[in-house]
């Protein structure tokens, strides 16, 4: 075995998922509060995919203000671009990588070995550049999260269920189509529902509940301790993360976790962060009346960018909320910690810590926001710790320039 391969086998216990500066900004507002690799797409977070595929523990190289919550493991590491969505070929590519090589696709660094104190992943001077011969799946834009979600559910389903046996559904009033494509974890409770996996797999996590009258089409993932409320209509390519409550109509959307859309109303081609709440009869538009492509706010250019998509709904950052009967225009982006309410359609870009709606916004003052956030987290028996509070405080300061109604001193 050559020294490069030996180096690989020593370091596969330590994978470092790094934030690519050229990508991270395009994934805001979701990367305000997490590294790129902490994004959930499919059933698993990107970091969890790598843990399972490589059989290794992972750590993060991210923004300084996030690094304490998402620590970097000590020692040398195999550094992998956190936006890379791995597949069955990924591991073989890494196994052939030596310590004196760097794997690229075009100008994008995909993987390389770095020392314990290295932070500048652009510094690959002296290393042999290896170009991938086929394009990797990279999460480059916020809308890729829902766009790639169906394919990622399929990959994660195979990864999670391989060699395992599904729990049985004992409820006589639940109807299954293509039951071989349905996997139920222990502790799941399903009553009088229809699960149709003819178009893609359905994964039901442990300690979940699917209530009476729910209609679900695959590909679909319901993660641990989440609930689908009575009469919900869940269309394909949808993920409901852990500890969520979801009702109404949902199509091709990803809800990261600890968020509620418990009532009637439509959510389509959308991404919802953690600790969000959508009031009763909230509706998102995901298709323009003239059928043209949707433009979405891009933090990297400070303006709207064309997604090239005909269907694109709502991007809602962590800890944001909306009141009953809220209506969101096609391609709306909401930052962190905002509260949206009132009649009419609010603006299509709502910055972090905004308070208001179509009639105008003011600033959701940080002490008041923090009071609400603590109460929301506390309802789940958890605590918003000092580390998380400081992250949110820093985001409040970083996002101030977007709140154009504020006066500057």
UniProtKB/TrEMBL annotation:
Q: Which GO MF terms does the UniProt record name?
A: acyltransferase activity; nucleotidyltransferase activity
Which protein are we looking at?
UDP-N-acetylglucosamine diphosphorylase/glucosamine-1-phosphate N-acetyltransferase
A Pfam family of the record is NTP_transf_4
Sorted keywords for this record are: Acyltransferase, Transferase
Q: Which InterPro entries match?
A: Bifunctiontional_GlmU_bac-type, GlmU-like, Trimer_LpxA-like_sf
């Amino acid at each position: 075995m050559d020294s490069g391969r030996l180096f690989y086998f020593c370091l596969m216990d330590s994978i470092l998922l790094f934030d690519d500066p050229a990508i991270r900004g395009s994934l805001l507002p979701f990367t305000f509060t997490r590294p790129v690799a902490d994004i959930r797409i499919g059933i698993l977070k990107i970091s969890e995919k790598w843990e399972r595929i490589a059989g290794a523990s992972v750590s993060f190289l991210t923004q300084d203000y996030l690094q304490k919550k998402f620590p970097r493991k000590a020692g040398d590491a195999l550094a992998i671009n956190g936006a890379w969505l791995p597949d069955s070929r990924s591991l073989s590519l890494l196994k052939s990588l030596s310590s004196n090589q760097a794997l690229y696709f075009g100008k994008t660094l995909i993987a390389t070995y770095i020392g314990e104190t290295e932070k500048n992943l652009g510094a690959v001077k002296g290393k042999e550049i290896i170009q991938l011969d086929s394009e990797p799946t990279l999460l480059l834009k916020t809308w890729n999260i829902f766009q790639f979600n169906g394919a990622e559910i399929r990959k994660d389903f195979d990864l999670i269920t391989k060699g395992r046996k599904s729990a049985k559904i004992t409820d006589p009033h639940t109807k299954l189509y293509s039951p071989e494509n349905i996997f139920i974890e222990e502790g799941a409770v399903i009553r009088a529902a229809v699960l149709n996996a003819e178009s893609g797999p359905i994964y039901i996590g442990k300690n979940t509940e699917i209530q009476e009258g729910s209609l679900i089409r695959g590909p679909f993932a319901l993660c641990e301790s989440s609930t689908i409320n009575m009469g919900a209509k869940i269309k394909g390519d949808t993920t409901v993360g852990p500890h969520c409550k979801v009702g109404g109509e949902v199509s091709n959307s990803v809800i990261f976790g600890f968020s509620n859309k418990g009532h009637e109303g439509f959510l389509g081609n959308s991404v919802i962060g953690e600790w969000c709440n959508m009031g009763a009869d909230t509706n998102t538009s995901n298709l323009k009346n003239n059928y043209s492509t949707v433009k979405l706010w891009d933090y990297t250019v400070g303006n709207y960018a064309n997604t090239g998509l005909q269907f694109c709904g709502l991007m809602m950052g962590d800890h944001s909320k909306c009141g009953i009967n809220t209506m969101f225009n096609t391609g709306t982006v909401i930052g962190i910690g905002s509260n949206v309410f009132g009649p009419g359609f609010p603006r299509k870009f709502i910055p972090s810590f905004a308070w208001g709606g179509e009639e105008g916004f003011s600033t959701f003052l940080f002490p008041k926001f923090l009071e609400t956030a603590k109460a929301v987290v506390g309802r789940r028996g958890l605590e918003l710790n000092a580390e998380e509070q400081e992250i949110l405080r820093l985001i409040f300061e970083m996002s101030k320039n977007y709140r154009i109604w504020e006066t500057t001193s």
